[in-house]
């Protein structure tokens, strides 16, 4: 094996000379090669968000609650695995872990291609495949950890913004491509009489892309090691109040983005079953949320993360109220879609501003101290980002599952929406009291 593939303790991007001579080019190369893997990871993670809409037309007789379960379970699995993926990266290496974890996406994609060809496939099989799609969500934690290891602290924000922004576009890619691809007989598969959907395409189309991205990561990336903090010291983030408060806010920001991405297509089809242009354009909402993320980060740099996040959570409150009003008789499709556009845009802005607040809070605590304390604060901030990204990903489970339970218990989504409303009000209160008011404990 080429010895340059693994870079150990000599890797020091904080050294200006090293960064100019060797570090920048290698870090940028790793960023370029990891982006396709992260995009595909998010696409596979959100496959069920759009696939469940088409299962009834293909002969699968599942209840609304069961369909919401299938759209929610990938986030449950992905959020749980994020903690372990982030911790495993330094032991295995970024190149090897990215290549292998990307290749693991062949399992859910291939399994879906097989399972959806027969409406008699047991629901338990679908549940297992839904959980396996969570592997894509877990890959994000290792991806951002590798990007952080490659870049110096003053460039990590931009690099992480690029990596995360492209990764989030994978949601829109899946929700745009799957409805188009299942209407075409690309692979000459047998089809039941009278059926014009080739659902197997929803899995098959990703197989060559996953294989290519995995091979590219293996050949083009490096196993970079940075020994900033021991595992024991990084675990101190679990004892910090700031970590859990920011985890709650990130659940409200990124959790809203990924949760509404998972639930919106199915909720739209349930509330407005007649085919419409809106159902063909569900991918625009996640696209708007992904594009709004860097805007939230830039606004946070100028106006302060807490102030931007507070306004974004207020917009999320208005969005939920809009959805509730749109569902009151008579239901209004245009107002429903406009409210979700607001929800996705506000979630994207909050995603960027809240993500900026997490690491900045640790740096603020270390201001005025020596260089070693500052480096430790940066490392703890990176560990906190991993913890908060895992907490935030649970929103992809709670939102669709809450909606499914509301349908099962009350016949509609209103009860779940009222719970979302209360949650966003709590996010506003936490953001203002702990970070945004004049004498806040930690202003960021």
- Which runs of at least 5 residues are low in confidence (pLDDT < 50)? 1-5
Share in β-strands: under 5%
Total helix count?
19
Give me the side-by-side strand order of the main sheet: 1-2
Helix fraction by DSSP (H/I, runs of at least 4): over 70%
Determine Rg (CA atoms, Å).
Answer: 22 Å
Give the termini distance in whole angstroms.
45 Å
- Could you name the CATH class of the largest domain? Mainly Alpha
The CATH topology of the largest domain, please?
Growth Hormone, Chain: A
Mean pLDDT: 87
List keywords for this structure.
Growth Hormone, Chain: A; 19 helices; 2 domains; mainly alpha; 444 residues
What does this structure look like?
By secondary structure, the chain is mostly helical. It folds into 2 domains: 227 residues, MFS general substrate transporter like domains (Growth Hormone, Chain: A); 209 residues, Growth Hormone, Chain: A (Up-down Bundle).
Blueprint of the fold:
Elements: E1 6-7, H1 16-45, H2 47-54, H3 64-92, H4 94-103, H5 106-115, H6 123-132, H7 134-150, H8 153-181, H9 201-204, H10 207-220, E2 223-224, H11 231-234, H12 241-271, H13 277-280, H14 284-303, H15 305-327, H16 333-365, H17 371-393, H18 395-410, H19 414-436
Parallel strand pairs: 1-2
């Amino acid at each position: 094996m080429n010895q340059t593939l693994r870079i150990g303790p000599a890797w020091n991007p904080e050294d200006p000379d090293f960064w100019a001579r060797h570090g920048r080019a290698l870090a940028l190369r790793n960023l370029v090669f990891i982006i396709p893997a992260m995009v595909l990871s998010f696409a596979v993670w959100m496959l069920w968000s759009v696939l469940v809409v088409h299962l009834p037309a293909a002969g699968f007789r599942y209840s609304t609650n069961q369909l919401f379960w299938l759209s929610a379970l990938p986030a449950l699995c992905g959020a749980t695995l994020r903690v372990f993926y982030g911790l495993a990266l330094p032991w295995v290496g970024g190149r090897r872990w990215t290549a292998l974890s990307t290749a693991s996406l062949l399992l859910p994609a291939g399994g879906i291609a097989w399972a959806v060809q027969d409406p008699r496939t047991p629901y338990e099989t679908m549940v297992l495949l839904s959980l396996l799609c969570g592997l894509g969500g877990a890959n994000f934690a290792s991806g951002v950890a590798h990007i952080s290891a490659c870049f110096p602290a003053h460039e990590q924000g931009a690099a992480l913004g690029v990596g995360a922004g492209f990764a989030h576009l994978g949601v829109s890619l899946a929700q745009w491509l799957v409805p188009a691809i299942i209407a075409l007989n690309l692979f000459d598969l047998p089809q039941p009489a009278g059926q014009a959907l080739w659902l197997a395409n929803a899995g098959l189309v990703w197989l060559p892309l996953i294989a290519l991205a995995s091979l590219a990561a293996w050949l083009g990336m490096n196993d970079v090691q940075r020994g900033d903090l021991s595992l024991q010291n990084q675990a101190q983030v679990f004892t910090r109040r700031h970590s859990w408060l920011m985890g709650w806010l990130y659940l409200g920001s990124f959790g809203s983005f990924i949760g509404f991405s998972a639930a919106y297509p199915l909720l739209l089809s349930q509330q407005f079953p007649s085919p419409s242009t809106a159902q063909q354009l569900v991918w625009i909402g996640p696209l708007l949320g992904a594009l709004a993320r860097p805007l939230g980060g830039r606004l946070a740099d100028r106006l302060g993360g807490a102030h931007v996040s507070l306004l974004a959570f207020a917009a999320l409150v208005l969005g939920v109220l809009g959805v509730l009003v749109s569902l009151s008789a008579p239901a209004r499709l245009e107002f429903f879609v406009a409210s979700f556009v607001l929800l996705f845009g506000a979630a994207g802005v909050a995603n960027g501003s809240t993500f900026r607040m997490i690491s900045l809070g640790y740096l603020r605590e270390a201001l005025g101290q020596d260089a070693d304390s500052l480096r430790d604060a940066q490392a703890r901030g990176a560990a906190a980002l991993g913890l908060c990204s895992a907490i935030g990903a649970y929103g992809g489970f709670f939102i669709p599952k809450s909606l499914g339970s509301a349908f099962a218990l009350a016949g509609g989504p209103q009860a779940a929406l009222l719970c979302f409303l209360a949650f966003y009000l709590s996010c506003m209160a936490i953001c203002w009291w702990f970070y945004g008011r004049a004498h806040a404990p930690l202003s960021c």
